[in-house]
Every structure is written in structure tokens, then in C-alpha cells.
Input
Amino acid sequence: ISLLALTLVTALNCVSTKLTTLTSDIFMFFKFLALLSIAITGLIVAVTNTTLTSFSPNQDWKTESWFAGTSTNPSNWAVALYAGLWAFDGWDNTNFVLGEFRHPARDLPRVIHTAMPLVILSYLLATLSYTLVLPAKTIASSNTIAVTFGARVFGPIGALILALMVSASCFGALNATTFTSGRLVYAAGKEGFLPSIFGTVGMPGSNPRSNTKLHHPGSNSSRLWKLVCDENDHGDRIFFTPITAMTFNACLTATYILIGEFSTLITFYGVAGYSFYFLTVLGLVVLRVKEPYLERPYKTWISTPIIFCC
Output
């Protein structure tokens, strides 16, 4: 199933940027709908102390310490920290697609200042709802906490609905990550850090200017083309995307799927990802000192990267 989803998402990303962003918007709606429904349901259950099943809501949060039984092993803390960082990851992906922005200096700060607080708040409310409804042992033992939440509150129907929402959320997250990481490989190819073939747009060996230009057959069909095709100076096109870069990214991902296990991959990704985040943010501090007059279309307070590195 994972390989099938990866293949489908990569194919969507190869067709056009418009189709990819449209797909992301649709699945983002389902993600926020699921988080909002979980948050509201959890608060209602906590206040009314009732569910639609025979399950009695958790009362431990009223009578016991929320940190009871917390491990004192630093290695366990590290694993938990990386799992949490992975859950809130994605904040860096916007920087990978600045080339798709029409006004990056204006739009990037807007995106960061609106999307990040909204995502953090949504996940905090959902986590709070899980704690209010489910016992700590159930939360710790469940690999599909949202599905367990739906089953305990609404029964089998609730479990099925939330399972579908979670699946849509995962598909949307895979789609967004494929979109951004493909552009990262493309940029590395353009800058010479990877072979130049990864810095090309369109089908391998084709002329980008002649790459799958479309002629609209009629007014009804043209509406569909406008939703799917990318617009540029040479007309509306499909497959005008970094196909080689995204194919390379898909091959790497498939390798990790075949040889890795989920919890191991989370830890691996957390260590590797945040090590490079640290170096990147540290580079910002260094450039502020060495290149104080460098042109910066958008600029953050120097305290922000220092706090992040610490």
C-alpha cells in the first residue's frame, strides 16, 4: 500500500504543479476537518462525561498527575523528543518551493505567521482531546490513536470515518513532502551539488519549450485544463515539472519503505533532519556576522535562530 501511494503521488507531482497544489488543498481540508472534529468531540466528552458507546471516558486526568510514571531515562526522552519533532515537522518545506512563489518576499512571512500557529494549535487541541478521553495506557499502546478515539466515542462508524480521514491526511502529507523534496533535489542539481540531470524540467532528454503543450478543445474542457495545466510564457503544459528529481526522490523513499520500520525511520529522520536544521540555522547566524549588509528580502530577528540552536 505504501509503495502504491508513493507511485500515485509521484505521478501526480509529475503531471503539473497545479494538480499537485489542488490535491494538497483538498487533503489539507480533510486533515483540518479531522483535527477540528477530534478537538471539539474531546472537549464535549470531557464536559458531559458521556459517549455514544458503553465506554466510560478517562478520569485519570482529574485524579492523577499527568506526568506519573514518566521515564527518567535520557535515551527515552530523546526518542520521544524526535517523535514529537517529527509530528510538528513540515515548517521547513515552504522554503523549498520559494521558486513557485510570485512574491516570495511578501508571501513567505505571511505563510509562516499564519500556517505554523494554526497547525500547532490544531495538534495541541487534538492531543489534549486524546488525553481527556483515553487512558494513558491505551494511548501508549495504540498505533492508530485517532481510530481508537473514534471507536471509543462513536463506535465502529466513528472508527471507520476517522480511519478514512487519517488516511487522507497521510496521503496529503506524502503529496506535500514529495512536492517540496522534489524541488530540493532539483535545486541541488541546478547548483551542481548533484548531477545536472536532476536539475532539468520535463521529460528526460526533451526540450522544455516543446514539452507537452496542450490546445484546449472547447470551453468546457478548457476549464478542466486550467485546473490541471501549468501556465507559462509558452502556453499551458503538463509534465513541465522536475520529473527526474522526483523520480530519484521516489526511488530513495521506496528503498526506505522496503528496508525500514516506522519507529526506526522516525528516529533516523529526526536525528538526520534536525542535525541539518541546526547547521542551516547556524549558518544564518554566521552570515549575519560575516555578511551584515547582504541583501535579505525577508529577515528574522537574530534571537530566533540563536534560541533554535540552543
